[in-house]
UniProtKB/TrEMBL annotation:
Membrane topology note: Multi-pass membrane protein
GO cellular component assignments: plasma membrane
Principal location: membrane
Region named Disordered: 129-152
Keyword vocabulary terms for this entry: Cell membrane, Membrane, Transmembrane, Transmembrane helix
Protein name: Transporter
Length: 152
């Protein structure tokens, strides 16, 4: 009984830390949105020879914010799908911003294909999961720490 009590306290403490980290990330993303507006106006005012570099930096910033949002999803929901989507955006960002050779692009395309195949054939979606468990659609995406409340 005491072991269960200690284990439950640790789960709650870890969940609280995860929520704090997610909130801090969310604040960072909101602050990053301000920079997007600044980039947008810089691109509009830049001469044509500088706009490509500015737009590339803009895309890098946008994708970094998307990766941050996906990281929040992964932290809070602990699902395989959220992890694979995070990996997908990280690979896409790498390909769009940092790829310098055709080899980088080919490896990135193969990696994205592997992630898509994994999502399609190895990760159950919400409807399939609900049919297997007898629950409602969306049961799989339960925030961490709520497993006991959902009966999982």
């Amino acid at each position: 009984m005491k072991k269960f009590f200690i284990e439950e306290k640790f789960k709650r403490a870890i969940h609280a830390i995860e929520i704090i980290i997610a909130v801090i990330l969310m604040i960072g993303i909101v602050i990053g949105l301000i920079d997007l507006v600044k980039y947008f106006f810089e691109i509009l005012q830049a001469p044509p020879d500088k706009s490509y570099d500015l737009f590339q930096a803009f895309l890098g910033h946008v994708l970094l914010l998307i990766v941050g949002a996906e990281l929040i999803s992964m932290i809070l929901y602990h699902s395989n799908k959220a992890l694979l989507e995070l990996i997908l955006f990280v690979i896409a960002r790498k390909m769009l911003i940092y790829a310098t050779s055709m080899t980088d692009l080919v490896f990135g395309a193969v990696a994205i294909a592997i992630v898509f195949v994994t999502l399609k054939f190895l990760v159950k979606n919400d409807e399939e999961h609900s049919e297997d468990t007898g629950g409602e659609a969306g049961d799989k995406a339960v925030p961490a720490g709520n497993e006991t409340e959902q009966g999982q």
